[in-house]
Amino acid sequence: MKKQAPAVQPPVKPSQLADIFSAVVHTPFGGMGIRTQAGLILEMVYLPRHYAEKDATDAAAAKAAKQIARYLKDPGFRFKLPLADVGSAFQKRVWAAIAEIPSGQVLTYGDIARRIKSAPRAVGQACGANWFALASPCHRVTAAGGLGGFSHHDDVDGFYLDVKRWLLRHEGVEGY
């Protein structure tokens, strides 16, 4: 019996990449994908530039898109969105501590760990698992000796760390 070759999938067109999102907002660093359901934000993610911009398909996505635009004009803007209840109890403690970091300031993973009585590595893992990029400002958390990782990525010249650098510069943080 002959072995059949696997079915070849047609290449995904850039315009199709945005189909999983309720909105895609273009930004100076790439894009923000917003997924919603039942009036809640399920996820906000950083996207490379090849994702097609997409108008909001519902009120929650429109609210998130509007607030992203406000943040891009005013780095001191604080997000107020209907976020889905996701994450473990520990992740929620980390994300709550991060939400208290003012724009233009950074804390280290160790600083957050001391505040919540945990370990820096665990804080870093919770930061990387953040479902609400930008709205929960994990970019304001750095390593003790430098930039640290971002969204579970640590490739020095990669997309995600470039986003983190852009966000920190946007907020007036120098040295990264």
From TrEMBL:
Domain of life: Bacteria
Protein's name according to its UniProt entry: Methylated-DNA--[protein]-cysteine S-methyltransferase
Keyword tags: DNA damage
Domain Methylated-DNA-[protein]-cysteine S-methyltransferase DNA binding: 89-173
InterPro entries: MethylDNA_cys_MeTrfase_DNA-bd, MethylDNA_cys_MeTrfase_DNAb, MGMT_N_sf, WH-like_DNA-bd_sf
Pfam short name (any one): DNA_binding_1
NCBIfam families given in the database record: ogt
